[in-house]
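User: If only I could read backbone structure tokens as easily as an amino acid sequence. Underneath my words sits a plain record pairing an amino acid chain with its backbone structure tokens. This is the protein in question:
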Amino acid sequence: MKRKFKRFAAMFLLLTLLVVVIGAIPASAETPYVTYTIDGYKNITQTQTAYLAYATITKFDDVAMGAPSDIQVTDDGLIYVVDSGDTNNDISPRVLVGTMDGELVSIIGEGTLVNPKGVFVTDDKLIYVADRDAESIFIFNEDGELVNTYGKPDSPLYGDTTSFLPIKIVVNDAGIMYIICESNTNGIVEISPTDGGTFLGYFGTNYASTSLMTIIYRAILTDAQRAKMVSNIPSTPTNLGINAKGLIYTVTRGDGDDTLKLLNIAGTNLISNTDGTYADTPVAVVAGNHDNVYVADQQGYIFEYNNEGEMLFVFGGPDDGTQRVGLSSMVSGIAVDTEDRIYVLDSDKGAIQIYEPTEFTNLLHEALYLYSKGRYTESKEPLSQVLEMNSMFDYANKAMGRAYYQEEDYEMAMYYARLAKDWSGYSDAFWEIRNVWLKQYIVTVILALVAIWIVYKIIKRLDNKKHFLDKPRDWYYGLSEKPVLTDISYAFYYLKHPVDGAYGIAKEGRANYLVSTLMLVIFIVEYVVNKYTCGFLVKTVMDGRYDILSDVGTVLVVAVALTACTYLMCTINDGEGTVKKIYTFFCYSLTPYIVLTPLVYLMSHVLTNNEVFLIEMLNIVIYGWVILLAVVGLKEVNNFKTSETAKVILLTAFTALILALLIFIVYVLWAQVFEFVSAIFGEAVYRLGY
């Protein structure tokens, strides 16, 4: 019995040890980078890993890369790498053709190429190479034979003194070449293969940005001074790509919000940087398989966008010296294969980083493809799976809302649009719902209004004959003569007659702390309610985020500080206003906000994006009216002239700024003192406990 127990105990300990050891072994290698996306509030947020670092190619068989500068992957899985060569290691300029497994298939262009920088392979396996130092475009067939060469266009439209230094190239289905030439600021060179190469013109020219200060300087400076200024010329595109529709993508370093463009046949940009996520230093771009596009940043970050220029993912990053798979040192090219694997060319390492999509990304790509083909119902299934993995992935919520919209399920479209913070999609769905409601109930509403008007007229006529409303009317008039209600009604009188109202505050004892504070409380309530529960299309705070105490505290601090600073400046400038009078006219000046904000609130729940300007106009009226009442009150209560009023306003603003700065300094110092005391207390507790 004891022997069996010992054997059982030994087996139990062995199994426990195995479980601990196996549990300590990681199930998979952790990616050395974090994947980010952008939410509906335009904030960069972390999300699931979109692409895994799959492999790294440093050589094809025994052939290493010297100075690789561009890459393309064809549908059959072959990798074409332009290698400018390395004289120190006796590597001549060439194009390496290999497989994802690192096998060398062929070497093209040795002895012909001088300093190649770009490559493009057509569907019929023609290999176009942009050679900067040879000032030519070389075309090779699949066997590596040179079949054609294009040099500088002889058209006078190209420019006799303009050099031809091709560095990047793409070709459309008609054989028309789009070439980026180094230092050519006129745009992309467009050449047709007809007649030995016909120059069609410049395409997709970037615009030179001019600031207002530059215009002013150029207007006032002399010719000699203007000649010394830096020339304001458009930047040359850095790289380009072409999608299945023949549209051209370009990336341009240092081009502000237009570093990425999608150009139609007229050279017009079709996308915009609405979320501010375009790469700052892009070096390469390639169209994806799902109406998406990938942009590689020089530092190793890879950006993925949809066909509207909205960011889906950003991942990767610079190598910190650890040589980890998936991190790059100096990116020079990017490509994608039919399986959505991404190939990033690192010219510094002489290597190719390969990334493969995760299940999360594959589902998103499937949804993108189905949606782009108009198969909206089918796209909902992969989108649902994406949202099961990450319910806060706003782009999937947005796409789901758009799919429901196409199915005319506007309630669900609004629901997902709100989750995604898709204001445009929400507005479109709400417009449809409102339109249906109006068609159903507009006649009923009109009839109800007519009935109310008729009943009002009947009651008014009967009252004129029978006087049956005299008692309620007397009760109302008696109630309105109560002191508190009289003072409240005076605030509305001040709204319509600010000069007379201010005179009453200054000379007739209309200043009242109780009513003024009541007006301030009503203002705070309306402000908080409108801020957090107004219509979605005009809401300026994040759903679920409430800082009510902070809002109330801010309003109270501003009211107290503004009253104190104004009283101080008025006293210094011989003003007649007391603290009570100044506080009263400030609070009474809020009456336009109190009266009109409920209307703004109601409008925010019934208007669409096309009508929101009405709310904006009404807000301008409200705040303008409040400021006007405050200025008139300041002038009349203190018996100031116009110039004195302006002076006091400026001094009050300056004093308030100094006070805010003082409060901030005190807050920072107190925070440091509190942190210091806490550290001492913690150290004392540690010492005593030790």
Observations:
- The first helix runs from residue 2 to 24.
- The mean pLDDT is 86.
- The chain is about 45% helix and 20% strand.
